[in-house]
Amino acid sequence: MVAAASVVVAAGTVSGVISATGEGPDVPEARPVSSASPRPVPLPAVPSASPSATSATVSASPSVRPKRSSASPSESPQAKRTTVSARLYRHPASRVLDWVRAHPGDPRRPVIESRIADQPAAVWFADWSPDTVTARVRAVTSGGAAEGRVPVLVPYAIPGRDCGGHSEGGAPDLDAYDDWIDRFAAGLGSGEVVVILEPDSVAQADCLSAGQRAARFASLARAGRVFKEADPRARVYYDAGHSGWHTPAEQADLLRRAGAASSTSSDGVFSNVSNFHGTADEIAYDRAVLDALGGTGLGAVIDTSRNGNGAPADGAWCVPAGRTLGRAPTLTTGEPRIDAYLWVKLPGESDGCKGAPGTFSPSYAYDLAR
User: Distance between CA 254 and CA 198 in Å, rounded?
Assistant: First the structure.
């Protein structure tokens, strides 16, 4: 995912969490952030950090085109929606868990383990590998079902993703992508699952021609239908960008064309993936998007993995200083129309300017956690 406008910051090939690919480096998306609304989240004292690990620098050139929404949406008096489940699944494989297991004596380990590694997070499927995707999806969904927990999956293989930026890649064309989606759906099983469908695919579609955009949106609408037909208990959410990007009306128009207003393909929208905007800002923005989108019974989920202090005022997007972990992942938010707070982006993964995109940095993770 590239940098979309005022937005993005590394989502990546496996960014959010656990790479389900099992092969090759993760290449997260990079997208700049605009304004900040600090919302400190107090954390207990932590031990002093050991020297931070060094890593190679990778330059990123995100495209910039954000529009800070000026809307002041009022809260809808809608009753609280039923949550999917009280518990989220933590997949037993991730870069942070690899680091924790390999560094038992590091003084940062207890903080990183308890505040990041022990939290449930999304599992990204960022490579176009039709021969193995069904088995890899099934491994995650069956693991969640065995524990009675809900996995969060991120299909991230749309052609032209990230507008050819830091996280470029994906399927070679939409026919191949549709086939990959069919195979992905075959691994969903019949249990509860949350699907974060293609971060940046809607909000960042302005790099496409009108015809290309329409074709992409048709494939996204189809993907939602295929997932829900394969597993009626699957909940599918579409890309709403974040509160520092398009206005709610603009974003809702794009989402409607991508099938997000239809109950046959969608359960609502997601926002703030790999970004830093404060939860209160995202709640207001998502409700405004939902109001403009229409549809029946739609909700929103928010990535709170790194937004504890809100977005930097200077618009920094790549591993900006002073950020903290946001609210813990949960499917019970207590907020009308907000279905979940999720950790889609894995805290501690690089955005591309300090280490290769998606690389786990214990020093960065420790700074976020403390």
Answer: 14
